[in-house]
Design a protein that fits this description.
Elements lengths: L9 E4 L7 E8 L1 H13 L3 H8 L1 H8 E3 L7 E6 L6 E5 L1 E4 L1 H4 L14 H4 L7 E7 L2 E6 L4 E4 L9 H8 L5 H11 L11 H9 L2 H15 L3 H34 L5 E6 L3 E6 L8 E4 L4 E2 L3 E6 L1 E5 L1 H4 L4 E5 L10 H5 L7 E2 L4 E6 L6 E7 L5 H10 L7 H30 L4 H15 L4 H18 L2 E3 L4 H5 L4 E4 L1 H5 L5 E9 L2 E2 L3 E2 L10 H8 L4 E3 L2 E3 L2 H8 L3 E4 L4 E3 L3 E3 L2 E5 L11 E10 L4 E8 L4 E7 L1 H7 L9 H9 L4 E10 L10 H4 L4 E9 L6 H10 L3 E5 L4 H11 L7 E9 L6 E7 L14 H13 L3 E6 H10 L13 H7 E5 L3 H13 L4 E5 L5 H6 L2 E4 L11 E3 L6 H38 L7 H18 L21 H26 L11 H9 L1 H7 L19 H21 L13 H19 ...
Parallel strand pairs: 21-36, 21-41, 36-40, 37-39, 39-40, 41-42, 42-43
Antiparallel strand pairs: 1-2, 2-3, 2-4, 4-5, 6-7, 7-8, 8-9, 10-11, 10-12, 12-19, 13-18, 14-17, 14-19, 15-16, 15-18, 20-43, 22-23, 22-24, 22-35, 25-26, 27-30, 28-29, 30-31, 31-32, 32-33, 33-34, 34-35, 37-38, 38-44
Length: 1212
């Protein structure tokens, strides 16, 4: 072949994306395939089932390695820690029917597109694979699989307008449609039979099937039937739940696939077609009226207002502007930077208003189709959720492996004992296999999920909904919560507090709202009237709450109903604002908003070009005051600008800067660039908004602090405002100091600098401190020495630190600042959505268990990445978050942590109990195997069904403890206290059973052959006792009773001891405080235990012939029965004492840790220890410089972001 197959055998799919995978090429080999088919037949399908569970084994045994180009089978492996394999078959698509007459010139818009590079000649076929609903095609030239349903990123702005502005031809569209597939987010309702088969083939149910078959072979009919009934109920409930989810998801997306759209055809004009025929490169014509977008598209002409609540969680209209026609060499997304989404219409969002420009129609180029779109990505995240990596689940699997190893030892023992005693081979095999079903209880996985199910129900009653139940246990480990500010810690709405106008570079008297006199007409009034992106929708003014409050203060109204004549541009659709009935007298009829530059979180500002009716054009800009001041002419900015800004932000106000300038009408407004518009501005003043804390915020943060759960604020607001809100909320104590961390790039080099300086509170009077500098310095040093300080930093500084100062060195040198910043950072301001996600992931790298609480608007990425994302929005965007609170309050956070801790402890209790129950039964059976005996079927049934199943269901009823204690429950099964608890209780049980087994054989009434000797002996030799205690077991016809092989004194003794021992461990392991309510509050569980104990004691002391015969018990003297009760009482006392005095003795374990100098392996704990040793930390009023080597960080900061949608931070 000329190429080394091994060299091209491997590649990466979706490199650098969240769903990155390794891909390996394989070719099916006939002889291997034949051998595997023979194996399926000989193993009665067991080998095929194994391949179903392990697809990589299927590929490795059926195929041989080859290059990806030759492969007919590909093996995919996720690049995360789970490394999950999947097998995909390569398929071929023929396009010859569409380009047969144009062999020399394939019907594609240009030669460098994936559509021309994927077509193999002369066969005119395309090689494809389908992975998680996405179609990939083989690029012949790049020798790799690439996504088909997207427009490539390499196009420039001018290229998109030039190549796609006129639309595709019919033949081009046909070829693309065949290669890309239909533009549909098709989630079919999964047939019940498919769900049933998939559920039944779960290894847990396969093991249950094996157990049931074995029990039927041993005539253990009753329990086998009970397990079948319970398993069927479990399977049917699961299938019903999955079916309902499938129907719900199908209904969510079905409307997307059935819409009619208008497209522009090259040389053929406009054409109506169904939306599932759309392909990347098509030109979509958007008409007036509401439209649900069936794909992602780049707006190339006109302007749109869309409702993106499906993606962002907020029903705030968002303005979209057309892609500029700039002639440059940068790809369009790189050119537009973070603002690219202001030109993209996302699938699933609703266009509520369109505004055509001088070109006459609003047009958009299809960017992505099907599951490649924003909505498709959201649906795929539901269909293919990221697996959870939690120590409990990994340890549970390891523990299960240990039980299997334990069972293997028992099997060998059983084979040896029965084979040496000459038992039949079939009987030996049955007894040996029986040991597995005893040592590894089939009900174990079901028992572990009961606690989570009950917790989910309790959360639902409290208004907290969960779509990812496996994350509930993780909530019990949370030790850091990131909070968004606006709408989460503070009220959603903003109140207009005041306006500080500026004239001739001096601030004037403040204008308070509401005021007796209205705001005078002038530039500031005009800015408030037009510098917004509001629209009239459903008869109401809709838009950003800040814009609404600002506009309402003017008492003007929006006239958005007609077309308006604009000088030099003819008739166009523009928004006009006019004085309302309550407005003060204005010298103009109205103001027309000609063009908008929407708010950008990257630029932290928005601008409009407006024109008074009959007047000149003007630019009005509003945004972050620091940014606005930099865009203004220096002579217009007041000299005390910084001090005034600090004065208001220090009080927690949200401050907005306003500016304007006159515009010469040399070019149409739509042809002006943002850089031209937003320069040489005149500073107008500061708009001051009040954002109040929610009533629940401070108590909740105090509760979390008392529980040693760290709180961090991650916001898009001003840093000073954020710090003030953090102090008011109790996130930062009044006595603690705040250190501002500022990082900047060094001009003219690749290096960066980082500066640490105290953020001083500003005094109300002129910012003059009453203390002198030396006193201030001493006070700061004292606070720093006691560790009472917090870092605050902006998103810009965070990004620079991420790039330049993250290298981990053994000591604190120039570039070892990133982890300490995360360790002590409390306020992260001016953070973009991508930076929020990155921050959460960086906290996770330090081994924090991170919760994220936000209102869903710009927190979707962070909510998805966090261990527990809690959305306070009930919009559809909450599907990105595992938890959604019906009440928009952070009170749900401690509630979730409480329930998570209770669920985690319940899981541990259940695991310990199930492990002990199976071990107790296992030890009892092995003891009886020594005498070629075992438990009877009804004895097994009583232990398995009447005892364990009922306990397993009721033990989890215990509710969460109302108070959060300042430590967390253990996160892993393989921990010294838990292992010690299990091992000691196994030893106690083993000791008691062996003691009973041996001592009963030493009794004078014991007989190995005569199972009635005890009662006869008692009748003859215990006259004194008989008068007081009575005779037990002397019954007519006793000698005629036949023994079925199970009855013996050892069997009776061991079974009674092991059965009541199960009750003992259930009570001992049922933890109450500090994570769950005291066990006596679980009335059902206590009643069940008392009832079971009563029945067991009745069986001990009863002397009912039929009952004993049915249960395979034999009569023993009363003294022996009392002896057994004493043995059980001693075991209970010892077990309870050890559990309370040793296992649950937290001070003892802390002392042992200290004695043996045990240090936590968590990175953040190690870092804390290192910082405590460094007296020079933190540096204060110092500047450090990085090395010139930097780490390249993508625009989204490496955090999770929806590859097709990253909502903008809508805060100024």
């Amino acid at each position: 072949m000329g190429e080394n197959p091994a060299k091209n055998h491997y590649a990466q799919l979706n490199h650098g994306e969240e769903n990155e995978m390794d891909i390996f090429g394989y070719k099916t080999q006939g002889c291997r395939r034949a051998l595997c088919i023979a194996g399926y037949i000989l193993s009665c399908g067991a080998l095929r089932l194994l391949f179903y569970w392990k697809p990589e084994w299927d590929v490795w045994l059926n195929c041989i390695r080859c290059s990806l180009e030759e492969a007919d089978i590909v093996l995919l492996r996720t690049t995360d820690e789970f490394q999950i394999y999947s097998r995909k078959t390569v398929t071929w698509i023929s396009v010859s029917a569409f380009i047969k007459s144009r062999l020399d010139n394939p019907a594609t818009a240009e030669e460098d597109s994936i559509f021309s590079k994927a077509i193999m000649k002369p066969s005119l076929q395309v090689k494809t694979i389908q992975v998680q609903k996405i179609r990939y095609v083989w690029n012949i030239y790049a020798k790799e699989f690439q996504k088909a349903g997207i427009l490539e990123d390499h196009y420039t702005c001018s290229a998109i307008h030039a190549k796609f502005g006129s639309g595709l031809t019919c033949s081009e569209q046909n070829v693309r449609r065949v290669i890309c597939g239909p533009n549909s987010i098709d989630v079919p309702v999964i047939p019940i039979w498919k769900l049933l088969i998939k559920e039944v083939l779960n290894p847990f149910y396969v093991f249950q099937l094996f157990s049931v078959c074995l029990w039927f072979a041993e005539d253990y009919m009753e329990y086998a039937t009970a397990i079948i009934i319970m398993s069927l109920l479990s399977v049917l409930l699961t299938v019903y739940d999955l079916r309902q989810q499938s129907i719900k998801l199908h209904r969510l997306v079905e409307s997307h696939n059935n819409t009619m759209v208008t497209v522009c055809r090259n040389k053929e004009g406009f054409q109506e077609l169904e939306s599932h025929h759309l392909v990347p490169g098509d030109v979509l014509v958007l008409k007036e009226g509401k439209t649900l977008l069936p794909c992602d598209a780049i707006l190339i002409s006109g302007q749109c207002t869309v409702n993106e609540s499906m993606l962002t969680g907020e029903s705030i209209p968002v303005t979209k502007t057309h892609l500029p026609q700039t002639d440059n060499f940068k790809p369009w997304r790189m050119y537009c930077a973070e603002d690219y989404k202001k030109h993209v219409l996302f699938c699933g969002t609703e266009v509520i208003q369109t505004k055509a420009d001088d070109k006459g129609v609003v047009k958009a180029v299809v960017l992505r189709t099907g599951f490649n779109t924003a909505k498709g990505d959201l649906v795929r995240s539901i269909l293919y959720p990221k697996p959870m990596n939690f120590k409990l689940y990994r340890d549970a699997l390891r523990f299960l492996m240990c039980l299997i190893a334990f069972a293997a030892i028992g099997m060998i023992y059983a084979v040896c004992v029965f084979a040496l005693n000459g038992e039949e081979a079939g009987e030996v095999v049955k007894k040996a296999l029986d040991v597995i079903t005893i040592a590894v209880p089939p009900a174990l996985p079901a028992a572990l999920t009961t606690g989570v199910i009950y917790t989910q129900r309790r959360l639902k009653k409290k208004g907290i909904f969960c779509i990812s139940p496996q994350r509930i246990n993780v909530c019990g480990q949370l030790n850091l919560i990131c909070f968004d500010k606006t709408g989460t810690l503070t009220e959603d709405g903003l109140d207009l507090w005041g306006l500080l106008p500026s004239e001739r570079n001096c601030f004037q008297d403040i204008h308070r709202f509401p005021a007796d006199h209205s705001l005078p007409w002038g530039p500031v009034f005009r800015a408030m009237a037009v510098c917004h992106s509001l629209i009239v929708w459903k008869g109401k003014i809709q838009g950003d709450p800040l814009d609404v409050k600002m506009f309402e203060a003017t008492n003007w109204v929006i006239d958005d109903s007609s077309r308006h004549q604009i000088e030099g541009q003819g008739s166009t659709h523009a928004t006009v604002v006019r004085p309302g009935p309550k407005a003060s007298c204005a010298p103009v009829e109205g103001v027309t908003i000609l063009h908008q530059f929407p708010f950008s979180s990257a630029l932290q500002r928005m601008s409009v070009i407006a024109q008074e009716i009959g007047g000149d054009q003007q630019v009005f800009t509003k945004g972050a005051p620091e940014v606005i001041a930099m865009l203004c002419r220096a002579e217009t900015v007041p000299s005390n600008f910084e001090s005034k800004l600090l004065f208001y932000t220090a009080q927690g106000f949200r401050v907005i800067g306003l500016a304007c300038k006159s515009l010469q009408a040399e070019k149409p407004p739509t042809d002006l660039t943002r850089e031209e518009v937003e320069s040489d501005l005149t500073f107008l003043g500061l708009l001051i908004m009040e954002n109040r804390l929610k009533r629940e915020t401070k108590p909740v943060l105090e509760e979390l602090s008392a529980a040693c759960i760290r709180s961090v604020m991650v916001t898009g607001d001003n840093i000073q405002t954020a710090v003030t809100v953090a102090k008011n909320a109790g996130m930062i104590s009044p006595t603690h100091r705040v250190i501002l961390v500022e990082a900047d790039k060094v001009p003219g080099s690749f290096a960066a600098s980082i500066t640490w300086k105290p953020l001083e509170e500003n005094k109300i009077e002129d910012y003059r401190s009453l203390e002198d500098a030396s006193q201030t310095e001493r006070r700061i040093k004292l606070a720093l020495g006691s560790g009472q300080y917090h870092f605050a930093m902006s998103g810009k500084s965070y990004q620079i630190v991420e790039q330049h100062f993250r290298h981990l060195l053994p000591c604190f040198k120039n570039n070892f600042f990133f982890p300490p910043l995360l360790l002590i950072g409390t306020v992260f301001a001016r953070m973009s959505p991508g930076q929020k996600s990155s921050l959460v992931e960086e906290f996770q790298k330090l081994d924090y268990f991170v919760g994220m609480c936000g209102d869903g608007a710009n927190d979707c990425g962070a909510l998805k990445v966090a261990h527990a994302g809690i959305s306070l929005s009930e919009q559809e965007a909450s599907v990105a978050s595992p938890f959604t609170s019906r009440t928009p309050s952070i009170a749900c956070v401690p509630e979730l942590i409480r329930e998570g801790r209770a669920a985690l402890v319940t899981s541990f209790c259940m695991f310990k109990y199930m492990a002990l129950y199976s071990t107790i039964q296992y030890l009892g059976v092995l003891l009886l195997y020594w005498q070629l005996n075992s438990f009877g079927n009804y004895q097994f049934l009583f232990q398995d069904l009447a005892i364990t199943t009922v306990i397993g269901v009721t033990m989890s009823f215990t509710a969460a403890y109302p108070k959060l204690v300042p430590y967390r429950p253990p996160s892993q099964l393989i921990s010294p206290p838990l292992l010690l608890s299990v091992v000691l209780n196994i030893l106690f049980s083993l000791s008691m059973q062996i003691f009973g087994f041996v001592v009963v054989q030493e009794q004078p009434w014991y007989s190995k052959t005569d199972i009635h000797s005890a009662c006869l002996s008692m009748n003859n030799d215990m006259e004194n006792s008989s008068s007081s205690l009575g005779l037990h077991g002397v019954r007519d016809g006793a000698h005629e009773q036949t023994d079925n092989g199970f009855k013996s004194y050892e069997n009776t003794t061991v079974w009674l001891l092991s059965t009541i021992n199960c009750l003992i461990v259930a009570l001992v392991f049922s933890k109450g405080k500090p994570f769950r309510q005291p066990i006596y509050t679980n009335y059902v569980f206590i009643l069940v235990l008392l009832g079971q104990l009563g029945i067991c004691l009745f069986l001990v002391f009863a002397d009912i012939d039929d009952l004993y015969s049915k249960m395979d018990l034999v009569c023993t003297p009363t003294t022996w029965r009392i002896s057994m009760v004493v043995m059980l009482a001693v075991t209970f006392a010892v077990s309870f004492l050890v559990e309370e005095a040793v296992i649950e003795n937290r001070p003892l374990w802390l002392l042992l840790k200290k004695t043996f100098r045990y240090h936590s392996r968590s990175h953040y704990k190690k870092l804390q220890h290192m910082l405590e040793q460094d007296s020079a930390w933190p540096p204060l009023n110092e500047t450090f410089f990085s090395d010139t080597v930097t780490i390249t960080v993508e625009g989204n900061m490496g955090g999770h972001s929806n590859p097709t949608f990253d909502s903008s931070e809508d805060s100024l």
